[in-house]
Amino acid sequence: MTEILRHAENTDRWIEDGLFPSALYAGLKQSTKRNGECTILFDGSKLDSGFVVGDGRRGFTYQKRHFYLDPIELLMDSHVKVWKDLGFDGFGTWLDGDTVYVDPVTICGGLWTATELAKVRDEKAIFDVLDKRCITIQ
Q1: Reported pTM
Q2: For residue 126, what pLDDT band results from cuts at 50, 70 and 90?
Q3: How far apart are CA 3 and CA 38, in angstroms?
Q4: Burial environment of residue 97 by CB neighbours within 10 A (0 to 12, 13 to 18, 19 or more)
C-alpha cells in the first residue's frame, strides 16, 4: 500500500529553492521501508483517488542499504526542482528487491489515461490510490 506523505505550508518556497526539509525525506525513507513505496506531491495535498504513474526515464535508483543509511537530501533536492519545472505532480519511491527506484510521478484521474501514459513511459505498473493496489501494465 502506498503512502502519500503531506508536508507543511512552505511548499512553494521549498520548490522555488529546490529544497524539502530533512524531516520529509526521513518520512520518505520510513514509509518506503514500511510499505515498499511512497509518494510525495509537490503541492502538499493528500491524494484520495486517481492513479500514480511514474517516469523511470527521468528517475534514478539506489541500492536499498544506501537509501536507508546515506543522506539523500542533496541528490533529491537537485532532482525535485527539475521535476517540478517539467510539470510532474510529485515523486515516489518503489522498492523492488535490493533496489529503490525514485521517479517523478504524474497523477491521472482515469485508468485509461494512466495506462496509456504508463505504456508511453514503458512503466511496469501504476498505482490505484482509491483501491490501494498496484496494477500491472501489459
Answers
A1: 0.81
A2: very high
A3: 5
A4: exposed
